[in-house]
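Good day; I would like, with your permission, to put a structural problem before you. What I wish to show you is a protein chain and, alongside it, a tokenised description of its three-dimensional fold. Here, with my thanks, is the record as I have it:
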Amino acid sequence: MERQWFKGDTHLHTVNSDGVLTKGQLVDACKEKGLDFMIITDHNFNSVDESYYDGDILVIQGQEVTGANGHVNVWGAGVPAKPPYTLDTDDDYFNILTQCKAAGATISVNHPFCSNCGYKLDLEYYPFDCVEVWNTIQHSDNMKNRDWWVKQLLKGRRIGAVGGSDYHSDKYGVPLLAMPTTHVLAKSNTPSDILEAMREGRSVVTNSPNSTMIYMNMGDAQVGDTVKLADMQKLELKVTKLKKGQTVTVYNNDKVIYSSKAVKNSESFMTTVDVEEVGFVRAEVTYTLKSVIKRVYTAVESRFIKGDGTVPDFIWAFTNPIFIEE
């Protein structure tokens, strides 16, 4: 079956936990953003009893299982346990997430290296299908999430990377809904197909619904697929709405096999890259903050984020991998 791209927000809150919008208001706001799907993930509460369509938008059932040791999104099936949850130990999390998996849920660990509410237990102990690499507007903790995810890929672990706005409300006049947006290459816009595709790593995460997008293929294979190196040694890359100063980078495992900084805005940038190693290939679009903005960003981050006081280059868009075998 031919796949299509569907865009959505995987991490949303309503007044049923600590958001400011009702479920209906949030659905309408996501429609205005042009999203195809959305997942409502209120803290320890099922705001959606069963996934449904509201006009053209798919509303997927979800819940953010929330404890002092970490936050985990449960998508597509209700949490069998009743709150309040005891989430003090590895076994506490393992037991509740295993129940969710048995009920048919897709499990995604949220903002694992967040300075304020990261995942404090052993990340490699749990049955995670996905990891929220990009949480809310871009900040330094997301780069730690990205680095952990890449280490898992290098170990041979396939875990789908997603983004979620973690929307509660707009802040200081900044519209935060669908920032970032997860574009999913799925068979159809149904709960089972969207969640299956995210588990399989068939996603590209972008800054917003209509910002820079990355498409890559090796022959007919796209993100989440596996190819034979002997059969397919060329990667075709297309980046839309690339901005001046942004850098396009392609990795073959931990090696940079292509990097180019845009000298002008481009509606459609294309290139072909040779791939030499088995493992995987993935692509990113990154940017560097200008000096004045960087100083402001550094000052703001110093109030909220534990780090060395420096702001790295940020991701504007990134892909999940295409996997490569002998």
About this structure: DSSP finds five helices and 20 strands in the chain.
